């Protein structure tokens, strides 16, 4: 459904903001517990919707850990560009494989995606969630609204691309990267205007 992706990006960003207060060691412990939960859950054949909670847990904690690893915007943007290229290659290599419905997706694969079935029919990968949360954490300072923009802008542009071209199954990380770059420009412009 057009326009639902950016709203979920806002949700993931809102969820990430309180996690910023946690120490890096605590976040790493949460990430390890999440990965263990996903491993046990996939072996125990835990199914949707319970897998979504674990995917969100891992995505948020991993995203903030990633953000803290990169001290500068430049390093983080280079990281996003590298991931964007890998995402494009991955989509090109897997685009020839047949699509699978809900019935064919096993529990292990469910732990790689946050999904909502039904009228929304929403699916986003755990790496995409981690990147949205990392971008939010990187831009969050003094509760600025700009920290909510990267994922929202990126997925809005991706939705518009799919709507206008009719091509689905696109790599999301390049769109998220562009959303982050626009948000950094907004933040710097905002900073300059306050300095004057």
Structurally, the number of domains stands at 1
Separation, N- and C-terminal Cα atoms: 43 Å
Using only C-alpha atoms, the radius of gyration works out to 17 Å
Estimate the strand proportion.
under 5%
The structural class is mainly alpha
Give unreliable regions as ranges: 100-104
Order of helices and strands: HHHHHEEHHH
Shape: globular
How much helical structure, as a percent, in the residues? 55-70%
Q: If strands are numbered along the chain, what order do they take across the biggest sheet?
A: 1-2
Discrete helix count: 8
Report the average pLDDT across residues.
85
* Strand element count: 2
Sheet with the most strands, sense and barrel status: 2 strands, antiparallel
Q: What would you say this structure looks like, in words?
A:
With 196 residues, this protein is mostly helical. The protein has one domain. 69% of the residues lie in helices and 4% in strands. It has eight helices and two strands; from the N terminus they run H-H-H-H-H-E-E-H-H-H. Strands 1-2 form a two-stranded antiparallel sheet. It is globular. About 3% of the residues have low confidence.
């Amino acid at each position: 459904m057009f326009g639902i992706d950016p709203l979920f990006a806002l949700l993931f960003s809102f969820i990430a903001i309180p996690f910023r207060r946690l120490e890096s060691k605590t976040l790493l412990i949460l990430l390890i517990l999440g990965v263990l939960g996903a491993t046990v859950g996939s072996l125990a054949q835990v199914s949707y919707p319970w897998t979504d909670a674990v995917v969100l847990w891992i995505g948020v904690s991993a995203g903030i850990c990633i953000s803290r690893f990169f001290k500068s915007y430049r390093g983080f943007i280079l990281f996003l560009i590298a991931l964007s290229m890998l995402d494009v290659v991955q989509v090109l290599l897997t685009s020839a494989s047949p699509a699978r419905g809900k019935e064919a997706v096993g529990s292990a694969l469910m732990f790689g995606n946050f999904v909502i079935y039904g009228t929304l029919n929403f699916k986003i990968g755990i790496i995409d969630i981690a990147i949205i949360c990392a971008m939010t954490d990187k831009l969050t300072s003094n509760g600025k609204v700009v920290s909510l923009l990267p994922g929202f802008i990126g997925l809005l542009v991706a939705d518009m691309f799919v709507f206008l071209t009719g091509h689905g199954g696109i790599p999301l990380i390049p769109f998220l990267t562009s959303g982050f770059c626009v948000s950094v420009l907004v933040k710097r412009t905002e900073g300059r205007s306050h300095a004057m």
